[in-house]
TrEMBL record:
<comment type="similarity">
    <text>Belongs to the serpin family.</text>
</comment>
<keyword id="KW-0732">Signal</keyword>
<dbReference type="GO" id="GO:0005615">
    <property type="term" value="C:extracellular space"/>
</dbReference>
<dbReference type="GO" id="GO:0004867">
    <property type="term" value="F:serine-type endopeptidase inhibitor activity"/>
</dbReference>
<protein>
    <submittedName>
        <fullName>Serine (or cysteine) peptidase inhibitor, clade H, member 2</fullName>
    </submittedName>
</protein>
<dbReference type="InterPro" id="IPR000215">
    <property type="entry name" value="Serpin_fam"/>
</dbReference>
<dbReference type="InterPro" id="IPR036186">
    <property type="entry name" value="Serpin_sf"/>
</dbReference>
<dbReference type="GO" id="GO:0005783">
    <property type="term" value="C:endoplasmic reticulum"/>
</dbReference>
<dbReference type="InterPro" id="IPR023795">
    <property type="entry name" value="Serpin_CS"/>
</dbReference>
<dbReference type="GO" id="GO:0030199">
    <property type="term" value="P:collagen fibril organization"/>
</dbReference>
<feature type="signal peptide">
    <location>
        <begin position="1"/>
        <end position="20"/>
    </location>
</feature>
<dbReference type="InterPro" id="IPR042185">
    <property type="entry name" value="Serpin_sf_2"/>
</dbReference>
<feature type="domain" description="Serpin">
    <location>
        <begin position="48"/>
        <end position="408"/>
    </location>
</feature>
<dbReference type="InterPro" id="IPR023796">
    <property type="entry name" value="Serpin_dom"/>
</dbReference>
<dbReference type="Pfam" id="PF00079">
    <property type="entry name" value="Serpin"/>
</dbReference>
<dbReference type="InterPro" id="IPR042178">
    <property type="entry name" value="Serpin_sf_1"/>
</dbReference>
Length: 417
């Protein structure tokens, strides 16, 4: 069989021509066309800000959340807000910088969410549910419930009269059902929902299916140099992947496509073993865009740990720090579109997020196909130390998941080593 290389060479010729002509017009992006840029997308802007806020807590280990789910659920709730409460939601989603009207941002989020869900079972296995829980709220507007369900897959669920323990049990039961029986990581701290509280909850479980299967040998255990050193299983594959090596910032950027091309994983790995504090602080939309644009098809030998990342977070203090303030205050919050009665009836009680992701070797092909591409002198991408994970939708460009793998569960290595 012919190796893939000649095809690449053939393609690169027209590509050069296109580049040449586009430089005259100065408009078309450099080739090969990367997916839509993080700029102009509320999921990237909000995702990055939330990520950095979550990571500023130095005790956070294995962060994971879905910027798309958070943004779209907040977008839905924002439609039920009025006055300054509504403008805070709009500012948070960057409406003024991305779109002339908040309806444009909401359409964008709604279609990205739809694209995410319909890709289920092609590029990945996805379980997800979102709901707004209401505590002792007399009547929630049927129009709000209908609209937020249709556009943002946001259900409405009333909480009972019980105390905070009962509320948490109810929430956790709902999350488990939404994740198809998977137990989410426990929530730290308690939830206090007074009368009139709205609690926004997202749950997501994601397992990507690679375009090309990785090989995994169950006897091949290596050491992951994370928060604690552990013995883990690694999976490997050599082939052509989009790679960028930022020498100044000492980070490798790798894009691994998923089956069916609907989404891809982007991994950010420091050159050397270190915790992610430096990289977390470095991230900006500009830098991420530059990395994604500069990544080009390179022969790479990729090694990744097999791992499950789970994370449960309360986003309340982080959203507060990002400027969502009135919404939490029972006296000034205005959710008159959610329930009649206007100001002072409803307020936001919490925003909770359960997420889990499995890194495994499978591709989307029915039969395992370990065919190697004909590669020479591959670059090494050896992820035996912490890295950042982004999952982006290839069609809409939305940021589906963002997280950090600081630690992989496994047999601990003894201290003397
Ligand atoms: C994805 O497909 C699985 C299997 O059919 C199903 O259980 C799950 O609910 C689907 N996920 C979504 C988000 O629809
Ligand atoms: C994204 O989709 C385009 C068009 O379907 C496809 O050519 C490209 O290979 C996809 N990219 C990835 C990373 O899968
Ligand atoms: C890919 O990028 C690297 C560094 O950014 C560059 O040296 C190389 O020439 C590029 N290859 C192609 C085919 O554009
Ligand atoms: C991750 O969890 C799944 C079950 O959800 C399990 O089958 C798999 O073995 C786990 N992987 C690792 C590396 O622990």
């Amino acid at each position: 069989m012919l190796p893939r290389l000649p095809v690449c060479l053939l393609i690169s010729l027209p590509v050069l021509l296109v580049q040449g002509s586009s430089s005259i017009k100065g408009s078309a992006p450099a080739s090969p066309p990367p997916t839509p840029s993080p700029f102009g997308d509320p999921t990237w802007a909000l995702g990055l800000k939330l990520y950095q806020s979550l990571r500023s807590d130095v005790s956070s280990v294995n962060t994971l959340f879905s910027p798309l789910l958070v943004a779209s659920s907040l977008g839905a709730l924002g439609t039920g807000a009025s006055g300054t409460t509504a403008s805070e939601f709009q500012d948070l989603l960057g409406v003024s910088s991305f779109a002339k009207h908040s309806s444009q941002t909401r359409e964008l989020l709604s279609s990205a969410l739809n694209s995410f869900v319909v890709s289920n079972l092609t590029s990945f296995h996805l379980h997800t549910s979102s709901a707004v829980f209401s505590k002792l709220v007399p009547a929630v507007s049927p129009a709000f419930v209908k609209d937020s369900k249709a556009k943002f897959r946001l259900q409405h669920q009333p909480l009972g009269k019980g105390d905070s323990k009962a509320d948490l049990e109810l929430l956790q039961g709902w999350v488990k059902e939404g994740l198809d029986g998977l137990e989410g990581a426990p929530l730290e701290g308690e939830i206090k929902a007074g009368a009139g509280a709205l609690i926004l909850v997202n749950a997501v479980h994601f397992k990507g299916l690679w375009e090309r299967e990785f090989s995994d040998d169950s006897k091949d255990s290596r050491i992951f140099l994370g928060k604690k050193y552990t013995k883990v299983m690694m999976m490997h594959r050599a082939g052509f992947y989009r790679l960028y090596e930022d020498v100044a910032n000492m980070v490798q950027v790798l894009e691994v496509p998923l089956w069916g091309g609907k989404a891809s994983l982007v991994l950010l790995l420091p050159f050397h073993v270190e915790d992610l504090a430096r990289l977390d602080k470095l991230l900006t939309l500009e830098l991420l865009s530059k990395w994604l644009e500069n990544a080009n098809s390179t022969s790479v030998a990729v090694s990744l740990p097999k791992a499950n990342i789970t994370s449960t977070v309360s986003l309340q203090k982080h959203l507060l720090a990002l400027g969502l303030t009135d919404a939490w205050d029972p006296k000034v919050a205005d959710f008159s579109g959610v329930s009649a009665g206007g100001k002072g009836v409803l307020h936001l009680g919490n925003v909770l997020h359960w997420a889990s992701m499995e890194l495994a070797a499978h591709s989307g092909k029915e039969e395992a196909d370990l065919e190697e591409e004909n590669i020479e002198k591959p670059r090494l991408f050896y992820a035996d130390h912490p890295f950042i994970i982004l999952v982006k939708d290839n069609v809409t460009g939305a940021l589906l998941l963002m997280g950090a793998l600081d630690h992989v569960e496994g047999e601990p290595l003894h201290d003397e080593l």
